[in-house]
């Protein structure tokens, strides 16, 4: 049953008030900041009054005075004589409660409410943007307790508003920060704080953070105003706070610094780097060990450090925390309740989808394979039906199977994937096989053939002659009367080339039980109608001997029954290669793993007040948590990816090979990638500055709409804060962010000459455009079609179990005698199929709390009107892009997205409802 625990995603328990060691803390802040010049932008009023935010919350009115008096805290300031000129101010604090609480948590909530009534309250303090000239430290208000916690203990609303009253000296200045000291026993989630009563208007503080109790962290939490400040513009009263907060997040100060080399607690907020040394478990045996990714031998991006102890048998490997036990990410990166609910709703379905096939295969090994295509179809029509004889066996061994069978028919049945809804047999057609290279799950590997024949870059001394075995005679009859030279000149031949990425691993892959693979090349011809047709497939193996006839085999469109089935098997091997490259390289490596260092560095080097951090924040949501879960159950040794894809235990080594040989940030933007693959050429006369060589290329045409919107948004935003090259070069936090992401987060490639410069506003806008593209549109295009387009396994098998037989082989006779059964036996088994389908079902699902491109639910994320205006224009442009995509999908002239049995291309359509929709572009890598 171990397979069950790793084959689907379930919510991970969060640190809901987990106890921690109480550590000593000294004075909060004791250093004085030097005087700084005022910001070049005048103080800004809040975009929304507090009433507009508070009226949406259903709460019980708070009493005017608290019941009970709070005893003085040992680290509270001594009461001081009020200035004769003072005024009242109020902080309105929105706390988000869990919608569902277990009994233990409900009791703890009540205990905290009674403790609050007795004086163990939550204390707030206002910090001014100004320095007290007499003391040389930031001006601070007296601490004030939140009122209403006890009175609102039974309020059922998800959001509850509390207030704290202050009397503030008239010379206080503007509030720039609020500190929160939690003297309850449990953590709580602060959504926002609004301070009103100051002459400059309400001050907004976007928090969205867990505040730990003093028994976990004696130091107060600090939240900064939503006014953006570049480092040199930081008001003097906030200078030390800004420095200290970043130091805490790096683990250099605060409670985390006391145990810098130790294991991180779930309540910590520390961001550090580590290599991928936790994918295997050598303590279980050599077959469970996996190499470390990151370093000279296997270069790889860095991941979030957890600090767990090393394994007993290998000091290089970190001990694992097996799912569902949580692994460390910074506390605020845990899933919110809505995300956990989405995963919980799919948990029973995932359990049953995996449990029943395991039972069937364990009791009756002879039906591990599909007997016919009707068995595959029945997964969607009836679910996994059990024959009477098999039922009787299961009922005798496991009595509760009957109840599962009777009470969960809907859950046992899989949703019908979109790919076979409109045309059940579309996947068999060559035109559909080719169309999916332009509008499928993995539309980013198709490239224009620029020289014939294709040539490998691998060492010929090891892998044989580099030239492809495809000759002009193989394809000349498929070129509409053109010669190969004419077709190349006219940009009419295209290729999927998976030769070099698979070839170094084939001997090891093919030695695995039930895994068979080739290095594949597929050539396509661009027809006059603007569609592609496959004209040749080459299947390559490392040569065993000179002139080995099995080393390179070429298949062309069939002319008879036997060659038709050989052609179908060849296409299936191409799809298996494509699935592996898609998942291991284009999806995981490029949009998950390579983005993690930029996210870690952003939290370590960019203050929450930094305008670039404010821009990046929605595009970093959930990514670290998703990546941590992936290390537990997806990319780990013997995990879902190894179990489900052809490379098996060599999956992550192949990903590291691609990182070393292929990945470079300067070619990750959409225009650069299209040009690199020969799919486009620069053309200033075109709307996006590019001319696509295949005009109806849905991924590219829709992608350019979103790329251009992101590009204009980033350009306008950067121009608001950086008027010159010097302003970019002089921003210490910005330069540290990028330098650390490159030199530490991508340490194995830090000396590469292609890293983009960060010297001008244009450089910065370009870098941000690429990062936002990768975390939003690129990830969406590669992720949310996995079940709708890949859930029908014959269309896109993730692994193959048989090589294509040669004439004269015993297996060739089996193919001729029973071709459809031979074909199905080459595809994944029943258990492999249902496990894979269950996982991609979850990975393709949008949660109800998804935040889509152009959306920012937090209306007060910045107080800068210029940034807000640019954000509104960006949202409008994204909406216009969505309308254009709808028009394109209704255009019968676009045959790669419209026609009989042809699916519309909606993976770049920005919005979506929850569930599996095959559309929707979230802001970030959220699944």
From TrEMBL:
Tell whether Metal-binding is among the UniProt keywords: yes
Composition-biased stretches (Basic and acidic residues)? 311-323
Protein keywords:
Dioxygenase, Fatty acid biosynthesis, Fatty acid metabolism, Iron, Lipid biosynthesis, Lipid metabolism, Metal-binding, Oxidoreductase, Oxylipin biosynthesis
Q: Where is the Lipoxygenase domain?
A: 228-927
Chain spans, region Disordered: 58-89, 298-325
What is a single Pfam family found in this protein's UniProt entry?
Lipoxygenase
Tell me the Gene Ontology biological-process terms attached to this UniProt entry.
fatty acid biosynthetic process; oxylipin biosynthetic process
An example molecular function term from Gene Ontology annotations:
dioxygenase activity
Top-level taxon in the UniProt lineage = Eukaryota
Bias (Low complexity) occurs at 61-71
User: What cofactor does its activity depend on?
Assistant: Fe cation
**Domain PLAT span(s) in chain numbering:** 103-225
EC identifiers of the protein: 1.13.11.-
Return the InterPro entries for the record. LipOase, LipOase_C, LipOase_C_sf, LipOase_CS, LipOase_Fe_BS, LipOase_plant, Lipoxy_PLAT/LH2, Lipoxygenase_dom_3
Give, as in the UniProt entry, the pathway in which the protein acts. Answer: Lipid metabolism; oxylipin biosynthesis
Q: Which PROSITE patterns match?
A: LIPOXYGENASE_1, LIPOXYGENASE_2, LIPOXYGENASE_3, PLAT
| Gene3D superfamilies in the record | 3.10.450.60, Lipoxygenase-1, Domain 2, Lipoxygenase-1, Domain 3, Lipoxygenase-1, Domain 5, PLAT/LH2 domain
Q: Does the keyword Lipid biosynthesis apply?
A: yes
Matching entries from PANTHER family are given as:
LIPOXYGENASE (PTHR11771)
Purpose of the protein = Plant lipoxygenase may be involved in a number of diverse aspects of plant physiology including growth and development, pest resistance, and senescence or responses to wounding.
Q: Which family does it belong to?
A: Belongs to the lipoxygenase family.
Q: What is this protein called?
A: Lipoxygenase
UniProt organism field: Urochloa decumbens
